């Protein structure tokens, strides 16, 4: 794209003034042919109101410098937080005044920061021909400008790479608290021309100024009198100074100083922060090593120097070490291996989204994911029973809880499930689960046996019916609910479906191909820790022995006392009636 963007952005020098007072640039606009340009704006709760207003002014000012038109530059704007919202698509407006009106009416979403979800939306929707993008055969450049102030709450590297592979040139603009590593993961190469970091929203105009390096202009820098500390960049009838990556332009607009990335206070380093040209880097004190998260530090791990034999995790403790197991599994007597909770009891019903948006190839990945869950459970009539329900515009029980008694039978039945397509009636599926799937007729064990009932909902989008009533009803019925979302799944719906706390019962993956990382969380959560089957005394290490036994005895004693009290009350009432009759 080098040399393709020839935009008259001289007006950005006035962006610190309110947009109403900005003057239109003098002289003719610079035409370079058509361009499809989409702005991807972060409107999460971390963007304060006055900061969002500054970003709004920036967009309006930038629009006034573009050669806007259906045959010139087409502009689209989307905003995102925990979800993505189209402000206006590429083909919506051909007049700058209509675009400005839509931007002024923009209301921030003020939720999370799902940047990866926004990039995926831009790639699949905003740059589609249906939204106004010109066909690939016309070879019109596609440019996305992402403006964000924080760290993404989802993965961005993979989806950004897919967008770039489709020919979308990405500029990543970070403001104040933005994570430099994430900006570099999103932007197109070369990074020093596509990654911009400004210290505050008030200085976002510096991003516009650096764009002037792409303008067609007479090279006034060649005269050698510019006085720029680093680079001189020509613009129409003028020039401006630009600093190398990792530096910011000073007030004199000529000298440069290194950016102190640690000074923003958002580096989260446990020990020390070191500012480099590429961004903040954490460093640990002597005798410690930096953990993979790049922020926290740990005493040098003795586990790396011995053959510890831990099945799951080795933890160094001074001059010794100990083995740990994941949540839901306990350490065996050898101190190294982890018990798989094979003696646990649970009735598990899986609600699988079979709507049209999932698509056939992804539905096969979902079935493989379900079978990976089956692999870590003790499937048997006395242990874990599994039922599967598929839903789209209707609900279909693929097999009930009581049908299969082995993991092999369950996995074979899962592979035989046929994709339904059509809509997404999640509320209808929840109702079916509550009213039918956990009934004794479907194979669920009686409530008197205290076997945990677990429901796991797997969905990739927003429900087309109300979920609130039956999501609440499921939890009132004692069903422990888990929600797994993929792609365009809505965070608020996942949280409403899941039991509390949501952090332990909600999982999300940006796409189907990367959802296997959710397995470890589900293993630790679903693996049962207590349960009773008829005639079985709980003595498994995975089950809560004393507590369940004590609760059972206490509840039995209370029930007996209640019955005795009712009988005594009835006798007293009878005696009172007899006395009254004698009088």
Helix content: 25-40%
User: Structural class, from helix and strand content?
Assistant: alpha/beta
Assembly annotation: single chain
- State the total count of DSSP E strands: 22
Strand order of the largest sheet: 3-2-1-4-5-6
Rg over alpha carbons: 31 Å
**Overall average residue pLDDT:** 80
Spans with pLDDT under 50 lasting ≥5 residues? 1-32, 529-546
Tally of individual helices: 15
| Major sheet summary line | 6 strands, mixed
Shape: globular
Range of strand content:
15-25%
**First-last Cα distance:** 107 Å
GO molecular function, one term: calcium ion binding
Subunit structure: Interacts with COMP.
Signal peptide: 1-21
Subcellular location: Secreted
Briefly characterize the structure.
It is built from 15 helices and 22 strands. With 583 residues, the chain is of the alpha/beta class.
Structure description:
By secondary structure, the chain is α/β, with parallel strands linked by helices. It has helices spanning about 50-65, 95-105, 115-125, 155-165, 180-185, 190-195, 205-210, 360-375, 405-415, 425-435, 470-475, 490-495, 500-505, 520-525, 545-580, and strands at about 35-40, 75-80, 85-90, 140-150, 170-175, 195-200, 230-235, 240, 245-250, 255-260, 270-275, 280-285, 290, 295-300, 315, 320-325, 345-355, 385-390, 395-400, 455-460, 480-485, 505-510. Helix 10 runs parallel beside helix 11 (about 470-475). It starts with about 35 loop residues before the first strand and ends with a helix. The model is unreliable at about 1-30 and about 530-545 (pLDDT under 50). Major component of the extracellular matrix of cartilage. It is found in: Secreted.
């Amino acid at each position: 794209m080098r040399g393709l963007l020839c935009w008259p952005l001289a007006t950005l020098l006035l962006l610190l003034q309110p947009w109403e007072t900005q003057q239109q640039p003098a002289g003719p606009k610079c035409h370079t042919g058509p361009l499809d340009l989409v702005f991807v704006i972060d409107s999460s709760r971390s963007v304060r109101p006055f900061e969002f207003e500054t970003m709004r002014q920036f967009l309006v000012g930038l629009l006034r410098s573009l050669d806007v038109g259906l045959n010139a530059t087409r502009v689209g704007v989307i905003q995102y937080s925990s979800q993505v919202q189209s402000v206006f698509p590429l083909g919506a407006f051909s007049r700058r005044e209509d675009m400005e009106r839509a931007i002024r009416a923009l209301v921030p979403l003020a939720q999370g920061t799902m940047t990866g979800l926004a990039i995926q939306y831009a790639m699949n929707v905003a740059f589609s021909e249906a939204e106004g993008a010109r066909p690939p055969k016309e070879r019109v450049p596609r440019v996305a400008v992402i403006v964000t102030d924080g760290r993404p709450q989802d993965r961005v590297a993979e989806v950004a790479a897919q967008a770039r592979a489709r020919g979308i040139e990405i500029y990543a603009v970070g403001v104040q608290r933005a994570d430099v590593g994430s900006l570099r993961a999103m932007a197109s190469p070369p990074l020093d021309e596509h990654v911009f970091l400004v210290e505050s929203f008030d200085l976002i105009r510096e991003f516009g100024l650096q764009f002037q390096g792409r303008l067609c202009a007479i090279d006034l820098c060649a005269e050698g009198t510019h006085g720029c500390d680093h680079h001189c960049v020509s613009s129409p009838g003028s020039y401006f100074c630009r600093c190398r990556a990792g530096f910011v332009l000073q007030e004199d607009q000529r000298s440069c100083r290194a950016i102190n990335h640690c000074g923003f206070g958002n580096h989260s380093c446990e020990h020390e922060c070191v500012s480099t040209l590429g961004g903040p880097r954490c460093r640990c004190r002597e005798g410690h090593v930096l953990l993979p998260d790049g922020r926290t530090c740990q005493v040098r791990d003795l586990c790396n120097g011995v053959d510890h034999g831990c099945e799951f995790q080795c933890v160094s403790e001074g001059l010794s070490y100990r083995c740990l197991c994941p949540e839901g599994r306990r350490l065996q007597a050898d101190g190294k291996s982890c018990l798989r909770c094979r003696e646990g009891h649970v009735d598990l019903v899986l609600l699988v989204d079979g709507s049209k948006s999932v698509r056939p190839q992804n539905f096969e990945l979902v079935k493989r994911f379900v079978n990976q869950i089956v692999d870590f459970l003790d499937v048997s009539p006395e242990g874990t029973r599994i039922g599967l329900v598929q839903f789209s515009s209707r609900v279909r029980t693929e097999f009930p809880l009581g049908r299969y008694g082995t993991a092999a039978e369950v996995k074979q039945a899962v592979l035989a499930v046929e994709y339904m397509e059509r809509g997404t009636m999640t509320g209808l599926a929840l109702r079916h689960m509550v009213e039918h799937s956990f009934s004794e007729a479907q194979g669920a064990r009686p409530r008197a046996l205290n076997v945990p009932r677990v429901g796991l909902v797997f969905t990739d989008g927003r429900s087309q019916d109300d979920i609130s009533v039956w999501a609440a009803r499921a939890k009132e019925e004692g069903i422990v609910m888990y929600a797994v979302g993929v792609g365009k799944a809505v965070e608020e719906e996942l949280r409403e479906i899941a039991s509390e706390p949501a952090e332990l019962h909600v999982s999300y993956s940006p796409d189907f191909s990367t959802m296997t990382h959710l397995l470890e969380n589900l293993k630790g959560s679903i693996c049962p820790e207590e349960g009773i089957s008829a005639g079985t005394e709980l003595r498994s290490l995975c089950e809560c022995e004393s507590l369940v036994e004590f609760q059972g005895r206490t509840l039995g004693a209370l029930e007996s006392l209640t019955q005795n009290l009712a009988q005594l009350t009835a006798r007293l009432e009878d005696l009172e009636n007899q006395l009254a009759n004698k009088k």
